Amino acid sequence: MEDFYLILKYLLLGLFQGFTEPIPVSSSGHLVFAQHFLGVKIEGLSFELLVNAASLLAVLLIYREDLIRLSVNGASYAVNRNPENKKDFQFILYLIIATIPAAVLGILFKDVLSSKDVRLAAGSLIVTGIALYLIRNLRGNKKDGDLTVKDAVLIGFAQAVALIPGISRSGATIVAAMALGTKQETALRFSFLLFIPVSAGGMILGISDLLADEHFNELIMPYAAGFAGSLIMSYFSLKWFMGIMEKGNLKYFAYYCFIVGPVILILTLFS
After folding, report:
1. Left, alpha or beta for 103 (phi > 0: left; psi -120 to 50: alpha)?
2. Which of 52, 61, 115, 247 is most buried (most C-beta within 10 Å)?
């Protein structure tokens, strides 16, 4: 029975992480909250790597057509310099450029950024809410082919800031992109295609943590439950969020952050 409850807790953590990964409310912060209130103390980064891998798989499934198009057209331009494919080639370059800041800071400050401090995550969630509220009414005109190197660099630094638990990765990159004048559709696509190299890179760097995890074999079923929960919930949550972005309802996520952040701070003061 004890094993069943442990599997259930990890499943709930996976569902929770999967639901919050695509939406701009910080999945890392919510994973910290959930562990705290479920009484689950997860050592190391193995579980986070696995649920992030599940979210990555969901993003790959949803954006598979964009990925195929970018790969084919990008390769075609690189080989044949076909002007019709130049914008897709540049889009790929901008994704690479935007990946660099988070990759560098992630390597340099890996231990600091893996903090499980609930109050830090709650305070950072409030910061996420403020950023979302400030850009709630912006409607840009830039499409995929209108992005610049400057845009890519600034969005990349926004993603680097989101390495702090409680700062939403999707929220930070979408806020930065919209503040730079991009259309909501472009901001959303760039944000989640940017998630792919960062998540994949994190998995590669985290292989050593997985191999060194002394509890991996005994927790394989709970980990599997968390992975499955995250995969399913990430897929449907991202689909839901895409519909919300079309309607321009980001302000509701800001309100959520303004409520949850202070509530968590208050609760932790008395726990």
Report:
1. alpha
2. 52
Tokens of 211: 């191999």
What would the mean pLDDT of 78-102 be, rounded to a whole number?
91
Q: For position 95, what pLDDT does the model report?
A: 95
- Assign residue 23 a region (left: φ > 0; alpha: ψ between -120 and 50; beta: otherwise): beta
Nearest to 82 by CA among 92, 72, 91: 72
Count of the separate structural domains present in the chain: 1
115 CB neighbour count, 10 Å cutoff: 14
pLDDT score recorded for residue 43 = 66
Distances (CA, A) of 230 to 30, 90, 131: 13, 32, 26
Q: What phi and psi, each to the nearest 5 degrees, are found at residue 48?
A: -60, -40
Distance CA 38, CA 50 (A): 19
pLDDT band for position 47 (cuts 50, 70, 90): confident
- Name which of 132, 181, 134 is nearest 154 in CA terms: 181
Instruction: Identify the domain containing residue 25 by its residue range.
Output: 2-269
To 10 degrees, the CA torsion angle through 103, 108, 112, 114? Answer: 40
Q: Answer whether residue 116 shows pLDDT above 60.
A: yes
Task: Quote the CA–CA distance of 68 and 240 in Å, as a whole number.
Answer: 23
